[in-house]
Specification:
This protein is an alpha+beta fold. The protein has one domain: Alpha-Beta Plaits (2-Layer Sandwich), CATH 3.30.70.100. Helix content is 25%, strand content 36%. The radius of gyration is 17 Å and the shape is flat. The chain starts with a strand and ends in a 15-residue tail after the last strand.
């Protein structure tokens, strides 16, 4: 696993069913990681929790692990969309997306199981 992450939060359009959205997004995430630089993708269903209780609407998170410069895979992905290799649904532009590029700061921390520091 590389140290670069790209987080994509999304909220499906209300008029798209949950199963249809999940089926499409599983295919879409696989299409995305076929672009140069992507390593892995993991999808999650997320809900905000306050005082131990879910609040707000269900959202979706896809965590992409990538190597190198973000612009490399972004350029390749855009090229693949334009060529028709990656097919977006008609309702793709109705999805509320927010994304974050994450670059590590410092070393990866590990739990010391034997109590040593």
């Amino acid at each position: 696993m590389s140290n670069n992450l790209y987080l994509v939060f999304s909220q499906k359009p209300d008029w798209i069913g949950r199963d249809e959205y999940h089926e499409w997004y599983a295919k879409h995430a696989q299409e995305n990681i076929e672009s140069a630089g992507f390593q892995t993708a993991q999808r999650y269903v997320v809900r905000e929790v306050q005082n131990g209780r879910p609040v707000g609407a269900e959202q979706h998170l896809c965590v992409y692990d990538f190597e190198g410069d973000m612009q490399t895979w972004r350029t390749d992905l855009n090229r693949r969309i334009q060529s028709g290799d990656v097919v977006l649904k008609d309702w793709h532009h109705d999805i509320a997306f927010r994304s974050w590029n994450c670059e590590p700061v410092g070393d990866l921390l590990h739990h010391h199981r034997d109590g040593s520091r």
